[in-house]
Amino acid sequence: MTQRPHLARRTLALAAAGLLAFASFGAQAQSPIVIKFSHVVAPDTPKGKGAIRFKELAEQRTGGRVKVEVYPNSQLYKDKEELEALQLGSVQMLAPSLSKFGPLGVKEYEAFDLPFIFKDTEAFRAVTEGPVGAGLFKKLEAKGITGLAYWDNGATHMTANKPLKNVADFKGVKMRIQASKVLDAQMRSLGALPQVMAFSELYQALQTGVVDGTESTPSNIYTQKVYEVQKHMTLSGHGHLAYAVVVNKKFWDGLPAELRSQLEGAMKDATTYANAIAATENATALDKIKASGKTTIYTPTAAEINEMKKATSVVHKEMESRVGKQMIADMYKAAGYVVAK
């Protein structure tokens, strides 16, 4: 039976429209899901390299269905801005230092800032990889945030333009800190003057004398060129710098289960990698700082470390009402903390 001309034209038009719609749907289906991963440190730090490794693994294991865009060095947001940006969905993933969650309202995270609470990396990981770490991630969910992993960056040390060997040496020294009530109390217990400042502003502040010193890991001190504007570094090991890799909860929950599983696997392996390189990166950075000849590095005696530990131990008691007495007790138990005598 011969089709009438106008019906034939209509059939062809409908077929063409269908093909266009199918092509459009196919293009949409093939468009990768974008994860913007923002952080505030250099690409060649343990955190920076961990982010890049996650990008590589995520894109590989999802077959290109996910694209991870990494933005280092505060390219998108500074310290104070990034968590709000995550909650608003402006970025999907961050790796902020644990101190950042205190101002967000999860004050229990500030227990990680208690001076000398971790005697070594093993003590730190006993906390993050056990029930304490998992419980803290659970508390972030009410803020619209899902915790994926803890990334370690090792022990923090003091730097300044004067030697910091004894507690008396800290008196009146303006020390840059992150926004943490615990770190503020720590510096005050030593007689220093804490100054909250974005990490991206630190170099210039040290160069111009806005602050006299800071605390950080060797890898950050080297990659941010802090050693160029600091004459002295004391290997105090008083703190432990670490990050929580977090994602916008609504975005994460909205991903297909299969993709989420692939991304969790990529994050697990990126975490193993980032944690493994932290010790090596810090040791290499310390060697490079020494080789520069710009900073004198001092290793305190056991007695000098104990003096600092005793002076700052008051902070642990002061922060019970803020951080939670039970949280501190749980962390003591997991980390094997020993009170200074």
Report the major sheet: 9 strands, mixed
Count of strand segments:
9
Q: What is the terminal separation in angstroms?
A: 102 Å
Give the overall average pLDDT: 90
Structural class: alpha/beta
N-to-C SSE series?
A: HEHEHEHHEEHEHEHEHHEHHH
**Number of H- or I-type helical stretches:** 13
Q: What portion of the residues fall into strands of 2 or more residues?
A: 15-25%
Which ranges are low-confidence, i.e. pLDDT below 50, for 5 or more consecutive residues?
10-28
State the helical fraction: 40-55%
Envelope shape: globular
Cα-based radius of gyration, to the nearest Å: 25 Å
Please give a structural write-up:
- With 341 residues, this protein is an alpha/beta fold.
- The chain is built from 13 helices and nine strands.
- The chain has helices at 5-30, 46-61, 79-88, 121-128, 131-140, 181-189, 202-208, 218-223, 249-253, 257-292, 302-318, 320-323, 325-335, and strands at residues 33-38, 66-71, 93-94, 145-160, 174-177, 193-196, 213-216, 232-248, 296-298.
- Strands 1, 2, 3, 4, 5, 6, 7, 8 and 9 form a nine-stranded mixed β-sheet that branches.
- It is globular, with a radius of gyration of 25 Å.
